[in-house]
Design brief:
The complex is a heterodimer. By secondary structure, chain A is an alpha+beta fold. Chain A has one domain: Alpha-Beta Plaits (2-Layer Sandwich). Helix content of chain A is about 25%, strand content about 20%. Chain A has 2 helices and 4 strands. Chain A has a two-stranded antiparallel ribbon. In chain A, a hairpin with a 5-residue loop joins strand 2 and strand 3. Chain A is globular, with a radius of gyration of 11 Å. Chain A starts with a strand and ends with a strand. Helices cover about 25% and strands about 30% of the residues of chain B. Chain B has 10 helices and 26 strands. In chain B, the strands form 7 sheets. Chain B has a 5-stranded parallel beta sheet. Chain B has a 5-stranded parallel beta sheet with strand order 9-16-10-11-12, covered by helices on one side. A 5-stranded antiparallel beta sheet of chain B has the order 22-23-26-25-24, with helices on both faces. In chain B, strand 13 and strand 14 form a beta hairpin. The chains are: A alpha+beta, B alpha/beta. The interface between A and B is medium-sized, with 18 and 23 residues. The structure holds flavin-adenine dinucleotide (FAD). The site of flavin-adenine dinucleotide has 37 residues of chain B, from helix 1, helix 8 and strand 22.
Chain lengths: ~60, ~400
C-alpha cells in the first residue's frame, strides 16, 4: 500500500495529521510531509480514514 | 433483495454508497436526491464560487461514469415523500422503492427570513443555484448586507470583501459565534471582520427587510436602516425531516440515532447533517453540521450495513474549518466547556490556539492558521490526562 498525495489539491488542512500523526506531519511552513509512504497493511484502516476525511480529496491509496 | 436505498445525494449519501461498494456489498445500491445535480461539494459555495476562483464544474465530486462503474444507480430530481418502516418502502415523487436498508442523508436547508420571499436580491446559501445567483448579483457591485455572523455568513462577507465590495454583517446577539465557540473566542474570530474591512453590527435583530420588488435596506430593531442592494441571510439551517413526519422515527432533533447511527427500526440508518446520534466519546446525543463528520458517519453506516453481526459505534470528534479573509479557522471537539484558555503561541504571527476544558478533560480546541499545533491535539480530546498534555503542547515558544 502506497500513500499518494495530489500536491495540486493539498491545502495543508492537516486532517490527516490529526488522524495519523505517525504517518503525516505539517512542517513549520504548513506544508505536508508524508513520514511513511508505504505503511504496512495493519495501517490500512487508519490510512483509509485519512483518505476519506481529507476535505479536498488529495489523498489516495495505491495498491500497485 | 431490494438492497440499500440512500435518500439524499450529497456528501453523506455519496460517501455511504462508495463505502458500501468498497466493503464488498453486492446488493443493489440506489442513491436518490431531489436536486437536479450529481453530488457536489458545498464548502466552496461561500468561498471560491462567489469570488470566481472555483468554477461550478469543480464542485462536482464524481462523474456519471463513476457511478456506472461503481454499480450505483443515481436518481436525481427525485424527492422522497414518506418512509414506511413496516413495509420497508420509500415513497417518492417517482414511485415507490422497497429497501432492505435505508440510509437517511437528507441533510439540512437554509433557514429563510419570513416576509422576504418576494424580494429580489435576498438570498440564502445552501445550493449551487443559491451560490451562482449570489455571484451574479455581486458582479453588479452592490452594497452587501449579511444577516447573521455565523461561519457561513462570515465567509460570504469575506468573499464579498475580496471583491472589494462594501459589506456589513448584522448579528442579533451581542457576541458573534458565542454558541459555536464561546464568547471570547467568538470575539477573536469576529476581529477578522474588522481587519478585513467588513462592518460588524452586533446586538440588534432585524426588524424589517425593506424594498418593493427589490431589496433596498435592512432595518434593525434599534431603528437604524442599512442600505443594501444584496442581502444574504445566514441564520442557520433546518433539518430536512419533513418527509419522515409519519414514519414513527424520532425526529425531535433531526433523525435521532443510537451510537451505531441506527434510527431504531431494522435497516434504518441516518448520516450527515440530518443525523443526531449518541456519541459515546462525549456521552451525549449530538447533531453536527460539518463536512468531516458526514464522511465519517458514512463509513460507519456502510460498515454496519455490510457487517450486520458486528456493529461499530461512531465515537467521532466533531471537526470544522472555515476560510475567511485569507485565514483558516479550525475547530476540533466540543465548545461546551468549564474553562477556555487562549494561547498565542507565536504572538507576532497572530496564530491563537484556544483549549476548551470539560471537567478535567480536553473537550475541544480551536486554532486560527495553525493546523500544525491544532491537529496533533486531536489525540488528547476526551483522553486521560489530555488537558494537561494539551496545555503543555500549546505553551508559547520561549
Ligand atoms: C455554503 C456552505 C459552506 C460550508 N462550508 C463548510 C466548511 O467550510 N467546513 C465544514 O466543515 N462544513 C461546511 N459546510 C457544511 C457541509 O457542507 C455539510 O456538513 C455537508 O454538506 C453535509 O452533507 P449531507 O450530505 O449530510 O447534507 P446536505 O449536503 O445538506 O445534502 C442533503 C441532500 O439531500 C437532499 N434532500 C433533502 N430532502 C430530500 C428528500 N425528501 N428527498 C430527496 N432528497 C432530499 C438535498 O436536496 C441535498 O442534496 C458548508 C455548508 C454550506 C451550505
Amino acid at each position: 500500500m502506497r500513500i499518494v498525495i495530489d500536491w495540486d489539491r493539498c491545502i495543508g488542512a492537516g486532517m490527516c495529521v490529526g488522524i495519523a500523526p505517525h504517518l503525516f506531519q505539517l512542517d513549520e511552513k504548513g506544508k505536508l510531509n508524508v513520514l511513511i509512504e508505504e505503511p504496512g497493511e495493519d495501517q490500512r484502516a487508519t490510512v483509509e480514514a485519512a483518505e476519506a476525511c481529507c476535505p479536498v480529496e488529495a489523498i489516495s491509496i495505491s495498491n500497485g | 433483495m431490494s438492497g440499500t436505498v440512500i435518500v439524499g445525494a450529497s456528501l453523506a449519501g455519496l460517501r455511504t454508497a462508495e463505502a458500501l461498494r468498497k466493503n464488498g456489498y453486492e446488493e443493489r445500491v440506489t442513491l436518490l436526491g431531489m436536486e437536479d445535480h450529481l453530488p457536489y461539494d458545498r464548502p466552496p459555495l461561500s468561498k471560491g464560487i462567489l469570488t470566481g476562483t472555483v468554477s461550478e464544474s469543480d464542485t462536482f465530486f464524481r462523474t456519471a461514469d463513476h457511478f456506472t462503474e461503481l454499480g450505483v444507480e443515481v436518481k436525481t430530481g427525485v424527492r422522497a415523500t414518506a418512509l414506511d418502516t413496516t413495509d420497508r418502502a420509500i415513497h417518492t415523487s417517482d414511485g415507490t422503492l422497497q429497501y432492505d436498508n435505508v440510509v437517511i442523508a437528507t441533510g439540512a436547508a437554509a433557514r429563510t427570513l419570513p416576509g422576504t420571499d418576494s424580494l429580489s436580491g435576498v438570498h440564502v446559501i445552501r445550493t449551487l443555484e443559491d451560490a451562482t445567483a449570489i455571484r451574479s448579483d455581486l458582479s453588479n457591485r452592490p452594497r452587501v448586507v449579511v444577516i447573521g455572523a455565523g461561519f457561513i455568513g462570515a465567509e460570504v462577507a469575506s468573499s464579498a470583501r475580496e471583491m472589494d465590495l462594501d459589506v456589513t454583517i448584522v448579528e442579533a446577539l451581542p457576541n458573534p459565534l458565542a454558541r459555536a465557540v464561546g464568547t471570547e473566542v467568538g470575539r477573536l474570530c469576529a476581529d477578522l471582520h474588522a481587519e478585513g474591512g467588513t462592518t460588524l453590527l452586533c446586538g440588534n435583530g432585524v426588524a424589517e427587510v425593506t424594498g418593493n420588488s427589490t431589496v433596498e435596506g435592512v432595518t434593525l430593531t434599534n431603528g437604524v436602516t442599512i442600505p443594501a442592494d444584496v442581502v444574504i441571510v445566514g441564520i442557520g439551517v433546518t433539518v430536512n425531516t419533513g418527509w419522515l413526519e409519519d414514519s414513527g422515527l424520532d425526529i425531535s432533533n433531526g433523525v435521532v440515532c443510537d451510537e451505531y447511527m441506527s434510527a431504531g427500526p431494522t435497516g434504518v440508518f441516518a448520516v450527515g447533517d440530518v443525523a443526531a446520534w449518541h456519541n459515546p466519546l462525549f456521552g451525549v446525543t449530538m447533531r453536527v453540521e460539518h463536512w468531516t463528520n458526514a464522511v465519517e458517519q458514512a463509513l460507519i453506516v456502510a460498515y454496519n450495513i455490510t457487517n450486520p453481526t458486528e456493529q461499530r459505534p461512531y465515537a467521532g470528534i466533531p471537526y470544522f474549518w472555515s476560510d475567511q479573509y485569507g485565514r483558516r479557522i479550525q475547530f476540533l471537539g466540543r465548545s461546551d466547556a468549564d474553562e477556555v484558555v487562549i494561547v498565542d503561541r507565536t504572538r507576532e504571527s497572530r496564530k491563537p490556539v484556544a483549549l476548551y476544558r470539560k471537567d478535567d478533560a480536553l473537550g475541544g480546541a480551536l486554532a486560527i492558521d495553525d493546523p500544525m499545533t491544532l491537529m496533533p491535539l486531536r489525540a488528547h480530546i476526551m483522553k486521560e490526562g489530555g488537558w494537561e498534555a494539551a496545555l503543555a503542547a500549546v505553551q508559547p515558544d520561549s
